[in-house]
Design a protein that fits this description.
The chain is an alpha/beta fold. The chain has two domains: about 120 residues, Aspartate Aminotransferase, domain 1 (Alpha-Beta Complex), CATH 3.90.1150; about 220 residues, Aspartate Aminotransferase, domain 2 (3-Layer(aba) Sandwich). A seven-stranded mixed sheet has the order 2-8-7-6-5-3-4, with helices on both faces. The chain has a three-stranded antiparallel sheet with strand order 9-12-11, covered by helices on one side. Strand 11 and strand 12 form a beta hairpin. Helix 3 runs antiparallel to helix 12, helix 5 packs across helix 6 and helix 5 crosses helix 11. It starts with 5 loop residues before the first helix and ends with a helix. Bound molecules: pyridoxal-5'-phosphate (PLP). Pyridoxal-5'-phosphate binds next to helix 5.
Length: about 375
């Protein structure tokens, strides 16, 4: 009989409280599970129109260089981002997706005995990263079940709270707070609390929010952005933080040397300069979102209006609706991990994908109504 070594036992105990992030189901997995020939994925809030042609060209040009390590400092990209935000390069920290940046900041500033405050139905990665850092996640219930309760979050901040996380707009609820409400919230916090303002969906509310780094003021403010959503580069894994240089200098010590790969650096730089492409895509996605939300409203299953590139369906049998959609080759995102099993999150797709979704939903939901009657 083999005896487990102590290090393995310790690791098992430590890992028992950790839960892996459950991503959207990949198309290939659904095809295998259902034995069907094709499917559309509306589960991960990706840009349905693909990456910008400029980003593709930049990556194609860089392919012959991938035998070399990337610039570990991502200097060119940092310079472009610094210019965009009107800050120095020392205010910018790129990461392997904004997810890595979130984890690094939490790891750098919260540890055993500390608390990380977020909204109960806020992006789930904050709680997972807090646990992985040995800190205690503290989830504050939403005001109306869907929108961050900033007053309650401020009250939840105590001496042990080192980091507060806000997704704005939030995933999975799509709700947003304007700069006035955010600044009032920041003004109530102790100056040494780190506040992560996660703006993964910023491009969809750019008019409302502007540049939060310039508009908001708090010494420990960390604004994070990503190239995974509006910029169409989810597969490249690239995002970044804007924050005080002293704060980032500490975070930088937790980062691996070449955390942003070569293709991602080149693609992000090209996409950043392809501003018109991003604007047109965002507008197209917003038009499609409005269409989907009108349809959900008419069907009587609209959750709440979204400010991001996804919509929320609300129905007591949301789980069954999700299964029925999958059987028709459409992958939505079930929200059980957020305690929202009566909701489905559905990414806005291309027009033909959305039509397919609406046809499927009309027959599934109306069929359920008939069944109940
Ligand atoms: C609110 C929010 N923050 C961060 C991320 C992480 O994005 P990425 O790591 O691709 O930059 C996501 C991804 O879905 C998100 O919804």
């Amino acid at each position: 009989m083999s005896v487990e070594p102590d290090w393995l036992k310790r690791a098992v105990v430590q890992a028992a409280s950790l839960h892996p992030y459950v991503p959207g189901k990949p198309v290939e997995q659904l095809l295998r599970e259902r034995g069907i020939g094709e499917a559309v994925k509306l589960a991960s809030n990706e840009n349905p129109y693909g990456p910008s042609p400029a980003a593709c060209e930049a990556m194609a040009r860089a392919l012959g260089e991938v035998h070399r390590y990337p610039d570990g400092d991502a200097a060119e990209l940092k310079a472009a981002l610094a210019e965009r935000h009107g800050v120095s390069v020392h205010h910018i920290l790129p990461g392997n997706g904004s997810n890595e940046v979130l984890e690094l900041v939490i790891r750098a500033y919260a540890g055993p005995g500390d608390r990380v405050v977020s909204s109960a139905r806020g992006f789930i990665v904050y709680a997972l990263a807090a646990q992985a850092a040995g800190a205690q996640p503290h989830a504050v219930p939403e005001r109306d079940g869907l929108s961050h309760d900033l007053d309650a979050m401020a009250e939840a901040v105590d001496d042990r709270t080192k980091v507060v996380c806000i997704a704005n707009p939030n995933n999975p609820t799509g709700t947003v707070h304007g700069p006035g409400a955010l600044q009032r919230f920041l003004d109530t916090l102790p100056r040494d609390v780190v506040v992560i303002l996660d703006e993964a969906y910023h491009e969809f509310v750019a008019d409302l929010l502007g540049d939060s780094w310039r508009r908001l003021s708090h010494p420990g403010l960390v604004v994070t952005r990503t190239f995974s959503k509006a910029y169409g580069l989810a597969g490249c894994r690239i995002g970044y933080a804007v924050a005080d240089p002293g704060l980032l200098e500490i975070v930088n010590r937790f980062r691996e040397p070449f955390n942003v790969n070569l293709l991602a650096q080149r693609a992000a730089l090209a996409a950043l300069n392809d501003a018109q492409w991003v604007i047109e895509n965002v507008e197209a996605i917003k038009r499609q979102r409005a269409r989907l939300e009108s349809f959900l409203e008419e069907l009587g299953v609209l959750g709440v209006r979204s400010h991001a590139n996804f919509v929320l369906l609300h129905h007591p049998q949301a789980g069954e609706i999700g299964q029925a959609l999958e059987s028709l080759g459409i992958i939505p995102r079930p929200l059980g991990p957020y305690g929202m099993s009566d909701y489905l999150r559905i990414t806005v797709g291309r027009p033909e994908e959305n039509e397919r979704l609406m046809d499927a939903l009309a027959s599934i939901v109306k069929g359920m109504g008939r069944h109940r009657a």
